[in-house]
Amino acid sequence: MIDLHTHTTASDGTDSPFALVNKALSAGITTLAITDHDTTSGWSEAISALRSPMSLVLGAEISTLTSDGISVHMLGLLFDGENLEMQKMLAESRDTRLPRMRKMIELLAADGIAITMEDVMAAAPDGATVGRPHLADALVKNGVVATRDEAFVDLLHNDSKYYVTHVAPTPESAIACIKKAGGVAIIAHPFASRRGETISTASFSTLVNAGLDGIEVNHRDQSMDERKQLTQIADELGLVKTGSSDYHGNGKLNSLGENLTDPAQWERLESLANQRRVVKP
């Protein structure tokens, strides 16, 4: 069982890296990717928890923006964690999240919604990449909404009046950085329309020219028709097809292993990295 997209308390998940690895072992996951938002800070702890028969794939989910302002998430896997250019891109993306969070809080507060930056920081684990899920958790704690999902549906979705974008690399520049660091690039949930505006079918050719390796086809936020369309695009463009849970722990309904990557597709994807970087116990 291969799950190539999960999150820990290093970003907006609710399980520590150590706990996530143990949960994945219990769930029968044989290959697990740690892909926290714009950070590699959970890698070391995840490695410390690793034991047979599971292998660990180290990566990150990188926030990007197209030239026309559409949010695209790019999964970088198997890259060199010591690569300075890669770490610079991740750090710059993290740095832009705090001003964005302050602006969202200002917009919410202006409409009488009880929330402060202190509330959000209290909801985020130490060292975590601060994001909307932490704002959602603070809204739950303050009694504004009942659940994190409700916060996103009612207040924090991409088309909300309270949503604020942040400075981010383009998808093409993120792909180029991942590739220079020796990794592979997979576009995450590209047709997840419930999250907001999505890229067009025509955009994939440009991403392939930049070095895109794969498409996350099987994801709970994509309908069966969208998955079929993405499968066709991947086959036409010669891209690897992946599936994953996008697990966040208690914060979302996603379950470990609810969508998986075919072993043959994973073998092909791993071969595209410049080194064999899968961590084995």
TrEMBL record:
Q: Which GO terms describe its molecular function?
A: 5'-3' DNA exonuclease activity; 5'-3' RNA exonuclease activity
Q: Give the matching InterPro entries.
A: PHP_dom, PHP_domain, Pol/His_phosphatase_N, Pol/histidinol_Pase-like
Span of domain Polymerase/histidinol phosphatase N-terminal:
2-66
What is the protein name stated in its UniProt record?
Answer: Unannotated protein
